[in-house]
Amino acid sequence: MSALSGMKVLDLSQFEAGPSCTELLAWLGADVIKVENPEGGDQGRRMVPDVPGLDAYYFLLLNANKRSITLNLKHERGRALFRRILPSFDVLIENFTLGTMESLGLGYERLREIHPQLIYACIRGFGNSGPYAGYKSFDMIAQATGGAMSVNGELGSTPLKCGITVGDTGTGIHCAAGILAAYIHRLKTGEGQMVEVSMQDAVVNFLRTAMLGHYITGLASIRSGNRIPVLSPSDLYSCSPGGPNDYVYIMVNSTEMWHALLNAIGRADLAADPAQADRNWRNQHFEELHDLVERWTSERDKHTVMRILGEAGVPCGAVLDTSDILSDQHLLHRQMIVEIEHPARGRLRMPGNPVKLSRSPAEVRPAPLLGEHNAEVYRELLGLGPSDLERLREEGVI
Questions:
Q1: pLDDT tens-digit readout, 8-19
Q2: Taking the complete model, does pTM exceed 0.85, yes or no?
Q3: How much is the CA Rg of the chain, to the nearest whole Å?
Q4: Residue 190 DSSP class
Q5: Which residues are tagged catalytic?
Q6: Closest by Cα among 80, 134, 84 to 105
């Protein structure tokens, strides 16, 4: 049995922050019903399109394991239908602009009258309160206002956004944790509640260790590129044959690791120098030690370097690009990269569920087509048949 088997989630979210939350819940076994506008559905279906008429990969990567129904919430009958199905669900999640659900008569206070045990989760750029509450946001805005850009990049460079969407998917994961906490609370008390997560708040949470410099110096934390100035040698090192991603990251945080590194690169003779046992000495000779290590790494490919140092007990990671990731034997072994069969895209290799539960294995299923599950979901929840659905389609309700 899946860990969240029995949990039913009504997913009104779109783009990434909300869908990444519900995808995680769906991987863990929740029955996630994605509610979409009949006219085009989630806008993510059209983000960075590559083939006209097909759902974008952006959508496929964020909506695995869900079922899709269409429902026009701007139509009075659509809202009435929504209120009828709501009591069948444990969780509702939305990431609309502040006030949108209230304008439809579907805000939390109204919905809790219909369903007092409802867990209502909302994701906003800046939350439901505070001076910025009404401002719109995307991932990069959250990275900027959450402090991530200020500490990302090379020393002396302009602030730099992260290449991964910490503001979107990072918020989604925070929201999933909040939903699970509220769900456990409801199991113990029978009480529903609102779960609110701000994208800015989530990024600030990721900023915690980067704030250490501020506490130590009293000044704003600075960008330091790939280096950890207080841990030498810890940096990015070039490898053969010298392509754009032919690098490894090596991190040495103890004298034992330094000696293990010296042994692995054939310079065990340097371990006899008592000065090098001192971290401060190594930090003061950052450039010298960097060059020493890179002379060795540059003669080998990144995978070989990672294998040799990994087996020697030295923390080392090859810089894997997206092609590497999708074919990495370790990730394939762990089923972090899986192959699925999509009804329109065919065979597709994609990232799977990162959370491994020993007694509750997760299966990865393809993202749904728009309205793919109208017939089965409306039959399950309301007992509607084909003629009912056809009439609702003709009236623009679904």
A1: 999 999 999 999
A2: yes
A3: 25
A4: -
A5: 168
A6: 80
